[in-house]
Design goal:
heterodimer, A: two-stranded antiparallel sheet, 13 helices, 77% helix, disordered N terminus, B: 508 residues, alpha/beta, six-stranded mixed sheet, globular, disordered C terminus, binds adenosine-5'-triphosphate, binds magnesium ion
Chain lengths: 328, 508
């Protein structure tokens, strides 16, 4: 056996190739969008796309962390909703100073995340079931609180996080999203906690026997997911200036799709935030393109569905191709 | 054309992976009814060669003839249809299917015009098959629940449901006890009597003269030579494998022992059947824990490490009580346990070598919680070199390493903790002789540094050659404590089996 000293490069190659596939898919979609509509590449539209993607990406970071460690957090949409409802009720109805309302919403998100983590790690209910169950309970609460009403029209100070601009140029959702992604990347790649999250997802038994507090890590991962869902909720309502009880209903599945399109392994232990970001951009670009082209809304879900399958297919084909290259 | 007298001929097979030339022009053949042993160090290419034969890998170049006919495409189904069966190093049973279903997994008999599975027939056929091989396995038990030896029998039976001409066994005896090995050998003889050719891979050199007809040796992906088993001494086998002579496998520098490092008092646990275990390991000592498979050795180590709970008893580590803790606490306090089940408890296969090696040392290496690439690279490279882990780089995925090298990664993980007390559960399972010698030297070194080592092993030579003292376990209790001069193969076996008193054992 001949050895080379390029082990690092080899693994990078494999990841790179899979990443390139996704990146290529995004690039092709952008080219198609530019050809189909002349406003697509306008500065305004691009800023629009990224701003829209921001909420998905913020949720996606939490979801990626949950899936790497254990499994999907199906309650994220409901947590987003209840936290947005509570925060807006506090500022609008009770006149509470908005940063306190935001902190309260984050705390609530973390608490709900803790419940998820506790059910999964300490009681042993699979994440699919526990987070799905929690989702119904939390949505129920949101309906009870709002009784079908819509809360709308908030203070500009509260709305800044959703529709303000940093230095008058960069939309705040993008700023928040970039902070979340950077922080998440740093945690996953450069900290002991990040390593431990991957270890728990890759082999929980081995991780525990290596001194990783696996239950605590799972709880931490879901607390993070809950907190990020709350944050996404605040950014979202601050941006659209209204909240109703089903505001988060249609977010979870596209977010999970973005995570899988980004190459995160459904069985845990493997995944990157960069992939999730690209996955989320792909979904948003297509949604935006369909808006610009005024695609009939009945077709939109079908298009998104086909797209998700195609992207994952490309990913798998690339990996098979890679295996072939190794074999040939 | 191949030669008709051979079942199998492989000529000049080459196979590369990124950064690794796993096989470099290797030739191999097999006659009907013979057992052809494939020998080589960890990472020599044995499993890879067999995966080519079984259609799991496509070779870069070379020819493969089965029954004299050139095989022109490589996939597992095709290989199966040509009569090739393989029992992989890591078993391939579906854990939550029962034995009969596992045996017929890829062609379950059907009924109702192909609409439903014919369970009754499956069980009947499975039972008949197992009986024809003189095996006793409950066909309704889940694969997950039966002992490793029986899982192996199920693998053999599964291979036999096809028209089998060639059976590959990759380290079949690695986790079997002596009695089970005898049973396996009976099965092998039964198969060869039917004209089936067997390729047999093993690192347990002592068993090779008992079962092998011919031996082929690989080294670093290259063909070294082929000889009749009867013509090769063990020393010569080792020399061909390693490329040098290994004169002294066990090189122990015994020294006076230091203060007690690990003390277990009256430990009992109903769940795992441990009763009243007392044991002490001193600094500077290597203490063996011998006994039959299932005698409670692994359970004891797990209880000490607080993987499983125990009801009564005290554990004292370095003079302080190790009360209700978990593995994390145990590691913090300077204890290490290398588990016996590599795939389930030892390694995260989808993580890299480096991530695995530092997994148990994260808080020691990075006390501030931030990873430092340099630091990680230095620690990992040190063990990769010292244990001679053969990998193209420390970022290689663990699953791409050969079985023995994976075991070395687990070993590195625990050495990296720089613990004071090490418990090793079957540390040399699947490891080649050369590497064994290095690991033994490593353990001796640990003892010399004043650390304490408790070693569980089913390899008696290793227990006898290495240990200052030996505890023998039977049915959850320690039945004997022997010092170095008393610990002979016969005595240990006598105590482990029970019923026979030590002197009788020695006399026989
Ligand atoms: N899928 C793979 N990808 C990359 N490298 C591989 C892969 N499979 C095997 N290798 C490499 O090929 C070499 C030969 O491995 P192989 O598993 O054949 O060794 P082996 O002789 O069976 O060793 P052992 O006795 O440890 O089981 C090793 O260096 C291994 O790291
Ligand atoms: Mg092997």
């Amino acid at each position: 056996m001949t050895k080379t000293s390029s082990g690092v490069r080899i693994r990078a190659d494999a990841a790179l190739l899979a990443g390139l596939g996704r990146f290529g898919a995004l690039a092709i979609l952008i080219v198609v969008g530019a050809l189909a509509s002349d406003v697509f590449l306008s500065g305004r539209n691009i800023s629009n796309i990224v701003t829209n993607a921001s909420v998905i990406i913020i949720l996606g970071v939490g979801q990626t962390i949950a899936i790497i460690t254990n499994g999907p957090d199906l309650s994220a949409g409901s947590v987003l909703t209840i936290c947005a409802v509570i925060a807006t009720l506090m500022v609008k109805q009770l006149g509470i100073f908005f940063p306190i309302a935001i902190l309260a919403a984050l705390a609530l998100g973390m608490f709900l995340g803790f419940l998820n983590g506790y059910m999964i790690a300490r009681i042993g209910i699979p994440s699919f079931i526990s987070t799905y169950g929690l989702q119904w309970a939390v949505f129920g609460f949101a309906y009870v609180i709002l009784k079908g009403y819509v809360i709308y029209d908030f203070d500009t100070s509260f709305r800044f996080i959703g529709n303000g601009y940093l230095f008058g140029t960069i939309p705040m959702p993008i700023v928040v999203m970039l902070l979340v992604v950077t922080g998440g990347m740093f945690m996953l790649r450069r900290t002991v906690v990040g390593r431990e999250l991957y270890a728990v997802g890759a082999n929980r038994v081995a991780a525990r026997m290596s001194g990783v507090d696996t239950e605590k890590k799972i709880i931490q991962a879901f607390i993070l997911s809950g907190a990020l869902a709350a944050l996404a909720g605040i950014v979202l309502v601050a941006r659209i200036n209204a909240v109703q009880a089903d505001i988060g209903k249609n977010y979870v599945l596209p977010v999970i799709a973005a995570v899988f399109m980004g190459g995160t392994s459904p069985t845990g232990g493997r995944g990157t935030l960069l992939g999730t970001v690209i996955g989320a951009l792909i979904i948003t670009v297509v949604q935006n393109g369909m808006n610009l082209l005024a695609v009939d809304s009945v077709w939109r879900d079908a298009v998104i569905g086909v797209l998700i399958i195609l992207t994952v297919l490309i990913d798998i084909t690339m990996q098979k191709r890679l295996a072939r290259i190794q074999a040939a | 054309m191949g030669t008709p007298e051979y079942l199998l001929e492989m000529r000049n097979i080459t196979k590369t992976f990124p950064g690794v030339r796993a096989l470099d022009g290797v030739s191999f053949d097999l006659r009907p009814g013979e057992v052809h042993v494939l020998l080589g160090e960890n990472g020599a290419g044995k499993s890879t060669l067999m995966k080519v034969l079984a259609g799991a890998y496509i070779p870069d170049s070379g020819e493969l003839y089965i029954d004299g006919r050139l095989v022109d495409h490589f996939n597992p189904r095709h290989a199966q249809s040509l009569g090739v069966g393989i029992i992989y190093q890591e078993f391939n049973l579906v854990p939550y299917l029962n034995v009969a279903h596992n045996i017929f997994i890829d062609h379950m008999p059907r009924t109702l015009g192909g609409l439903a599975l014919d369970h009754a027939r499956m069980h009947r056929d499975a039972e008949a098959l197992l009986k024809s091989l003189d095996m006793r396995v409950d066909t309704r038990a889940l694969a997950h629940d039966i002992p490793v030896a029986q899982q192996q029998m199920v693998e053999v039976a599964k291979a036999l449901t096809h028209d089998l001409k060639i059976l590959i066994m990759d380290e079949p005896t690695a986790s079997l006890c002596d009695r089970e090995i005898e049973q396996l050998f009976r099965t092998i003889r039964e198969l060869t009597a039917r004209g089936i050719g067997i390729v047999y891979i093993s690192h347990r050199l002592q068993e090779i003269p008992l079962i092998g007809d011919r031996i082929t040796v690989l080294r670093d992906g290259r063909y070294v030579g082929t000889a009749n088993a009867a013509d090769l001494t063990q020393e010569r086998m080792v020399e061909m494998m390693v490329g040098r002579e290994i004169s002294n496998l066990f090189n122990r520098s015994y020294r006076p022992r230091g203060e007690p490092a690990l003390r277990v008092k009256d430990l009992s646990s109903r769940g795992t059947g441990l009763s009243n275990v007392n044991l002490t390991v001193h600094r500077g000592e290597i203490v063996g824990l011998a006994g039959l498979v299932g005698s409670g050795r692994t359970e004891l180590a797990r209880a000490i490490f607080h993987v499983d709970p125990h009801e009564t008893g005290e554990i004292e580590l370095l003079g302080k009580s190790l009360a209700k803790e978990d593995p994390k606490g145990a590691i913090r306090r300077g204890l290490a346990l290398l588990p016996e089940d590599r795939k389930r408890q030892g390694l995260a296969l989808i993580l890299s070598v480096a991530e695995n090696v530092v997994m148990a040392s994260l808080s020691r290496l990075f006390p501030r919680g931030f990873l430092r690439n340099r630091r990680e690279q230095e620690s990992v490279s040190k063990y990769v070199q010292e244990l001679r882990i053969s990998t193209p780089g420390i970022r290689q995925f663990a699953k791409n390493l050969s079985g023995g090298n994976q075991q070395k990664v687990v070993l590195a993980k625990w050495l990296c903790t720089e613990a004071e007390v090490f418990m090793f559960d079957e540390p040399t399972r699947g490891i080649d002789v050369g590497a064994k010698q290095e690991i033994y030297a490593f353990m001796d070194d640990l003892a010399r540094q004043g650390k304490a080592v408790l070693m569980i092993s089913s390899e008696l030579p290793e227990i006898i050659g290495l240990c200052d003292r030996v505890y023998v376990m039977r049915e959850g209790s320690i039945v004997a404590e022997l010092d170095r001069t008393e610990a002979t193969q016969e005595t240990i076996i006598a105590y482990a089996m029970g019923g026979v008193c030590a002197d009788e054992g020695r006399a026989s």
